[in-house]
């Protein structure tokens, strides 16, 4: 019985020591001027200020793309998928599908550096939160031009709506 009381006493002492360490560190680091994260940044209402060299979601110009495949070839994680067809009005190819899987993308920017015609750039968009992995797979050829080139925001709603619209060949994306 005395061993049982000794174990309870040891547990209470250990708990008190741990709480004392926590309280001591809290008093040392407490700053009454520090606000919560939502008070500092007000994220949903005001966008975060990003650094000038921030590499966010890509911007893609379908009109300038020659579908050479340099970005697909040089991507270290193979997250870019390009489908192309012979161009009707000019020599070469044109992209019919330019898909980036953001569940794999490292945002390294190698694809942007190897593009010979600068049709691909890193944007400033940072929020593509969604509830399924399918929402992180973006086909830039199916997006409206102002969204694909970054003039409008790339949002999960735009990506989901784009997956519901029929493709150029008449088949649905699903």
Biggest sheet descriptor: 3 strands, antiparallel
Count the strands? 5
Mean pLDDT: 85
**Portion in helices:** 25-40%
| Run of helices and strands | HHEHEEHEEHH
Helix-strand blueprint:
Blueprint: H1 2-29, H2 37-41, E1 58-60, H3 70-74, E2 80-86, E3 93-101, H4 110-114, E4 120-122, E5 137-139, H5 145-148, H6 156-164
Antiparallel strand pairs: 1-4, 2-3, 3-5
Any descriptors?
Alpha-Beta Plaits; 5 strands; 2 domains; single chain; disordered C terminus; two-stranded antiparallel ribbon; alpha+beta; 174 residues; 6 helices
Characterization of this structure:
This protein is elongated. The chain has helices spanning 2-29, 37-41, 70-74, 110-114, 145-148, 156-164; strands at residues 58-60, 80-86, 93-101, 120-122, 137-139. It has six helices and five strands. It has two domains: 2-32; 58-164, 2-Layer Sandwich (Alpha-Beta Plaits). The strands form two sheets. It has a three-stranded antiparallel β-sheet with strand order 2-3-5. Strands 1-4 form a two-stranded antiparallel ribbon. The protein is α+β, with helices and mostly antiparallel strands and 174 residues long. Residues 170-174 have low confidence and may be disordered.
